[in-house]
Amino acid sequence: MIYLKSESEIDKMREAAQMVSRTLGQVAKHIEPGVETGKLDQIAEDYIVKHNGRPAFKGYGPKGNQFPATLCISVNEEIVHGIPGSRVLEEGDIVSVDCGVELNGYFGDHAYTFAVGDCDDEVINLLQTTLESLYKGIEKAVHGNRMGDLGNAIQSYCEDRGYGVVRDLVGHGIGKSMHEDPSVPNYGRKGRGERLREGMTLAVEPMITMGTYKTKTLSDGWTVVSADGSMAAHYEHDIVVREGKAEILSTFDYIAELSTKKDNIIYYG
Hints:
Shape: globular
Strand content: 15-25%
Low-confidence stretches: none
Radius of gyration: 17 Å
Structural class: alpha+beta
Distance between the termini: 35 Å
CATH superfamily: Creatinase/methionine aminopeptidase superfamily
Mean pLDDT: 96
CATH topology: Creatine Amidinohydrolase
Number of strands: 15
């Protein structure tokens, strides 16, 4: 069931989303060659707890295989759900950092993919295209459109540039639960799918590869990689469907503030 949010609920969701945004900004300060992904995870957890939030990913999932960390950190061919630990980031890596927070009963959940040091131009192009496709999708998230309009905008933008659009994983509704209806695919046909309505709150998250759209899950039960080992990028925003133009609840501004000091920030526009 799709639950349309009131303005007071959207206010609370904006606060949760902004906490995620600030957390990603804190993590971004430390992304560089030589850092362990487990250190980035601890930085995020400390920040969230200090500011009265709850790490939403930690403990998520079925009994016996609950996610063990605050962040999903996915490197290179890892698309999503990578588990932080002793892995050390290296020059030329790309790393998706996905964060979820529960604050005052509402959830925020979004992600950003960083370049680690100097990356090949073709990898930077993947990041730029994926980020741009996120906003192409959001442009279609207006009252009266269909979910297929949103998905098609992402799919066509990326496939026209030769990239693979992951189909096994999709975005989702968000609110009092981290994952709510409806599903938000990054592919589709114009004019098809769920009708978008004012007050829908969605996590839009294109997951794009340099090769195949097919995926596989590693033996840890969480980490999803491209089936052909190609590099993958992932960006995510929390939004509200509105009349005329969607409202973005999250922000990458805290990451962009580092652009004068670091070279791993990819811009949109």
